[in-house]
Structure formats: C-alpha cells, structure tokens
Amino acid sequence: MGRRSGILEFAVLGLLRESPMHGYELRKRLNTSLGVFRAFSYGSLYPCLKTLVQRGWLAEEPGDEPEDSLAAPLAGRRAKIVYRLTAEGKERFEELLSQTGPDTWEDEGFGVRFAFFGQTSRDVRMRVLEGRRSRLEERLAKMRTALARTRERLDDYTLELQRHGMESVEREVRWLNELIESERAGRDQHRGQTPPDPSDDTA
Amino acid sequence: MGRRSGILEFAVLGLLRESPMHGYELRKRLNTSLGVFRAFSYGSLYPCLKTLVQRGWLAEEPGDEPEDSLAAPLAGRRAKIVYRLTAEGKERFEELLSQTGPDTWEDEGFGVRFAFFGQTSRDVRMRVLEGRRSRLEERLAKMRTALARTRERLDDYTLELQRHGMESVEREVRWLNELIESERAGRDQHRGQTPPDPSDDTA
DNA sequence: GTTTTCATGTAACCCGTTACATGATTCA
DNA sequence: TGAATCATGTAACGGGTTACATGAAAAC
C-alpha cells in the first residue's frame, strides 16, 4: 500500500544501523541526536516502520517482555516492538547515503547524510561533501544571474534579502571547503583514527 | 472545497497587492522577484487562485482581449484571467504579514514577509524582525540544551554539524540586530523617505 | 490510586508536486 | 506551417501532520 520514500525512511535506517530500537525511542532520537532536524510525528513514524518491514529493510523482534513472560502468552500481547536493520536494509541505506544526484532532498538530505558520517567511509564522505558543494554553487550561479536580471526593479529590502541569502550560501561553501580539505588531509596522512568502514559485517 | 492556507496564498496576495496579474505571470514572479524561494507549480497556483476568489480575497477581471473583441464573443472564450486584490484580500494580507506567532511557517514565512517589506509600515517591519529574532533565539536555546545533554555520546561529525548549525543561526540573529537597529535609527530621525503606509486607500 | 510517561497505532486532512491535457499566440 | 512559448487547468499522488484512541508501566 504505502509507497514511502522521503527523508524519514533514510533517517530511520541510519539510526537503526547503530543499534536496534523500538519506535518510541527512535522518535526521541530523531529529535535529539539527529536534533538539528524537524520533529517527526508518530503518525508518520509508525506507518513508515511498517512499510520498511514489508520491504524487507527492517525486521521486527519481540521486545524484551517485562518480567512476566508466562502471564498472557498469546492474548492481546502487544509489547514493545524492536526493529532491527536487515542486510538488505543496510544496503539500501548505503545506497541512499552515497546518492549525490539533484533529487536528494537538497538541504535536509545533506543534514541526514552528514549526521551519519561517523558510520561511513571517507570515499562516501568526500562524495557527499563535494556533491553538496557543487549543488550549492549551482544555486549561487542561479541567484547571481536572477539578481543581475532584476536588480534595477527591486527595492532595498528585497535586495538585502537576496544579499543575505547569497552570503549564507557562500559561507556554507567555505565551510564545506574546510571539511573537504580536512578529509583530504586525513587521507594523505592515513592516520590510525577513523578506520574506513567500522564493523562492516555484511560483505 | 479546497481549504488553502500556506505560504503560496500569502505570496500571491503580496504580489497582487503591487499590481493585478494573470496566473502565468504570477508564477514567473514567484520564482524571480521573490526569487530566493521555491518554484511553485501551476498545479498548485491555479487552484489556489480559484479558492482565493471564492473567499473574496481576489476578483477576476476579463483580461485585455487581444485585437479581435468582436470575433467570437461567447464561444470557448477563455482568455487571460487577470486577478486583482480586493479590499478584503488586502486586509487578509495585512493580517498575515503582522502575524508573529510560532505558527508562522518559520523560515519561509519570514522570507515572504521580508520580501514585502517595501509595502509595509515600519511598525510591522519591527514586529516581524523582532518576532523572527526571538524565535531564532528560542531555537538557539533549545539547540544549546540539547547539545549539553548529549555532547558526550556524539561523534565529531555530529558535533561539527550542530556547531555549524548554531553558528548559522547566531549569524542570522546578528543580521536581524543590524536591521532592527537601522529601522530604529530611521524612526528616530523620521526621515522624509519611506512614508509609513504608501497608497493606503482601504481605511 | 491517580497522574505521568511510555508505547503503538489509525483516519482525516494539508499543502504541495508530477504528469497530463488543451488551446491560443508568436516567431522562424 | 510548424515549433516555441504563453496560458489555463485537472487527477492522482506524496510525504508528511493533527487529532484521536488505546492501553501498559512507572512515579507520586
């Protein structure tokens, strides 16, 4: 039924890659650890989990039944449902992570990708950072030409808004440049820290 | 049928306040003059115009019939439809402009408000700017506490993401401070420029 | 023993997009 | 005359939210 793609799926896969969790806890982490982002609601989270299970990205596990495992073994037993990432789910996450095309949810997509950098190889990190940078530069170019075409017939406020907008984007590009530089430096020195793929037990 | 609120309605009212227009041109201006923003599609624009007419915010005017006004007077004559802002529409726009509550579409709503500053009184401008600032400061506070609670169990990348996010918000606050300062200076000097309410023919 | 928090879900809605369809006007 | 662009619209979908409903466990 539900098609589901969107950044919620992405964030869920990423969080579950770290460790299995049940829905309620997942939602909390979506708003704290991944805190910069929007607060997702249960109304979207639980249906999303369902469809991810249907697709085979996630598996349900019977949550730790609290104390009385012999009391009501098959009644309306709807205890915590712990979700675990399957091997296919891991592949799917990898795939989403390394996507750098323009259909990448622009800003929020980058935020999620960056938040999961700790679990990524440097190759992927470089691609994500450079992809983001080039898309921001495209955006800058568009803004500049649009501004050049319309500068005369805009009032001071609109002009100031556009100036500030462009400056923000330029700042982010500089930030990305620093990050890319430090990633590259890390590679050249190949320091002992940050192994390329920690706990990769799928291959 | 359609309920419609959202920032599209807002932007449309604002653009039509400057001068009447037909849908096609409106859409172009939504992506250039108001250029910083997202590109709205016809699929949302035309239905929006319809419901705005139904509510009485807009009035349809028969567009300038090109050349042959005697050729086919009542056939499938579907020429340009020029939309004009009614007095009620103007009130509605005023109302939306000066709303500073937290239910204000956060970022995009501010962008639209700012883009229409040229048509606003300094009072409204001050309220919008200060409202935006206080909401950003709330956001900053939340980010700081969230960071304080989780700092230890976050990896370097997540930390860097949050640091950069907070810095961006702080920069915008400083920008707002400058704008507010210059608005205040303008008032104290009450210079001849920027009359408080240009062409206010509704009251 | 009652309130809070944990935990899971559903139905209705919202605001927008994509893809499609139609036709008039302008320009090469 | 045929292609581009102007101009208006509709149907189906998309990815979320809000509000609601339910119930168990923990805290007071």
TrEMBL record, chains A, B:
Coiled coil regions, renumbered to chain: 126-167
Keywords per UniProt: Coiled coil
Top-level taxonomic group: Bacteria
Pfam families: PadR
InterPro entries reported in the protein's UniProt record: Metal_resp_DNA-bind_regulator, Tscrpt_reg_PadR_N, WH-like_DNA-bd_sf, WH_DNA-bd_sf
Keyword check for Coiled coil: yes
Alphabetical list of SUPFAM superfamilies matching this protein: Winged helix' DNA-binding domain
PANTHER family assigned: CONSERVED PROTEIN, PADR-FAMILY TRANSCRIPTIONAL REGULATOR
UniProt protein name: Transcriptional regulator, PadR family
Species name: Streptomyces pini
Lineage: Bacteria, Bacillati, Actinomycetota, Actinomycetes, Kitasatosporales
